[in-house]
Design brief:
two-stranded antiparallel ribbon, Beta Polymerase, domain 2, 10 strands, alpha+beta, 35% strand, LicD_transferase
């Protein structure tokens, strides 16, 4: 088989490798969250308080905090939505995270902007989803490799856009003695993310099942390393 053919076959198999990797690391990350999750949550709160920027529990983290009053038993990371207006604010967040010992592990870039990035500390992975507020909606992005798509590079991912009701206000809940910012009316936010049955645990739920998601038919870039 020639080099081009081998590369295409590898790209087809990449999703399997990607899924296998997460199957192996998920139990390790889940254990770390149970042990250190609230400590890391407090560190993240410190970062945003120091910058006077808005963040909130999002996706699986929000789901666990509202539905189960704790982390979801199989959750492998902490998810936060972040409301920023310019790239300079994101760089300030990165500076403050690193100052507290976080290691930046990856970022996803779409149309030249970092729209999602991840950090790690004490075995806990933290994901930031950067939201853009428009006239009557808030949107963010997620990335995935689809098995039917032929990607040119290992770092290429399909881009998915979430469109939610506009997030104007946040409120705080208290869990384990820790303040947790959440969108005002978090139940509505969860319905938009997971559908009307969000109160019923479903380990088979995948992000593309969200009623608020659309494949934008574009390619985003993954930069994965220690920055």
């Amino acid at each position: 088989m020639n080099i081009i053919g081998s590369t295409k076959d590898y790209l087809k198999r990449y999703k399997i490798i990607y899924d296998l990797y997460f199957m192996l690391v998920t139990p390790i990350r889940t254990k770390a969250i149970k042990k250190n999750g609230f400590y890391v949550l407090n560190l993240v709160n410190e970062v945003f308080q120091s910058l006077n920027l808005k963040h909130f529990a999002d996706f699986g983290t929000l789901l666990g905090f509202i539905r189960e009053k704790n982390f979801i038993s199989h959750d492998a990371d902490l998810d936060f939505g972040v409301l920023i207006n310019e790239e300079g604010e994101r760089k300030l967040i990165e500076y403050e995270m690193k100052k507290r010992g976080f290691i930046k592990t990856q970022e996803f870039i779409y149309e030249g902007e970092v729209v999602e990035e991840s950090y790690k500390i004490q075995g806990v992975k933290v994901d930031f989803f950067y939201y853009k507020n428009e006239e009557n909606k808030s949107k963010c992005y997620s990335f995935y490799r689809l098995p039917e798509v032929h990607y040119k590079k290992i770092t290429d991912f399909s881009v998915f856009e979430y469109n939610f009701s506009k997030i104007n206000e946040l409120e705080n809940i208290i869990l384990n003695g820790t303040r947790v910012p959440v969108p005002k009316n978090p139940e509505k936010a969860l319905e938009e993310k997971y559908g009307i049955n969000w109160k019923v645990p479903d380990e088979k739920f995948e992000f593309w099942m969200s009623p608020s998601i659309v494949n934008v038919d574009a390619i985003g870039i993954l930069k994965k390393k220690n920055f």
